[in-house]
Amino acid sequence: MESEGILSTISEADRDLLTTINFDGPTGYDFFWAMYTDKWTWIPFVLVIVYCMLRPGNWKHRLLIIGCTALLFLLSDFVVSSFIKNIICRPRPSHDPAVMNLLSYVNDYRGGAYGFPSNHASNGFAAATFLALLLRNRWVTLSAFLWAVGSCYSRMYLGVHYPTDILCGAMLGIVFAIIIFFLYKKAAKRLALPPYRYIYVSKEMLAIPVIFLLTVVTLLLLSL
Questions:
Q1: Residues 5-45: pLDDT tens digits?
Q2: In the chain, fewer beta carbons within 10 Å around the N or the C end?
């Protein structure tokens, strides 16, 4: 009974926080976050990241990075969406009768049936954590985590994820990234590759925060 009371309290707090974050905002604000959450918006950002990750090192290192990245997103996206969500079966707030009629929606976007944990959160924090561990550049780390946090906020503002969906997705993404980075270091050592801290020393990595900033500024201008 006590555990049921705790879960009830968490669920109530979850709904209260979501209804605070989700509100009927102005058209420009709606447009900004609807575009921010769209994966196509971030293609230039992703392409620059891929370039910066693959340019240094030899072909063995590039293949290792490709393999680790593929495995990371297999865990943070496919495992989350195809297994965990379908096992837990927690409705998204936009599909939950307890709160769905209290929320505002942008362009009537409501997402799929289940929302726990959030794919956007697991993908975003997996990518940001892996980049932070691999590139060890403060500006890259800052831009990657700002991007991930913004993505998480957008999902709550749009009314398609509870805060706990976001929190648990982010935690999963961080754990997945740490595991993959550990495997990367082990594999790099077996392949006799130079330590990653000697591979990623180029100023070209600053293109990552620059493209992030330009994307956000572009969205802000389009939202006016």
A1: 666 788 889 999 999 999 999 999 999 999 999 999 999 99
A2: N
For residue range 168-180, list pLDDT tens digits in order.
999 999 999 999 9
Q: What gap in Å lies between CA 92 and CA 112, rounded to an integer?
A: 7
Pick the closest to residue 163 from 90, 82, 74, 72 (CA basis): 90
Distance CA 43, CA 147 (A): 13
Over residues 95-118, the mean pLDDT reads 94
SS3 per-residue string spanning the chain: CHHHHHHHHHHHHHHHHHHHHCCCCCHHHHHHHHHHCCHHHHHHHHHHHHHHHHCCCCHHHHHHHHHHHHHHHHHHHHHHHHHHHHHHCCECHHHCCCCHHHCCCCCCCCCCCECCCCHHHHHHHHHHHHHHHHHCCHHHHHHHHHHHHHHHHHHHHCCCCCHHHHHHHHHHHHHHHHHHHHHHHHHHHHCCCCCHHHHCCCHHHHHHHHHHHHHHHHHHHHHC
Contact criterion met (CB below 8 Å) for 162 and 15: yes
Q: What is the distance between the alpha carbons of residues 84 and 172, in angstroms, rounded to a whole number? A: 11
Residues 187 and 60 sit within 8 Å (Cβ to Cβ): no
Residues 6+ apart with CB under 8 A from 219: 32, 35, 36, 41
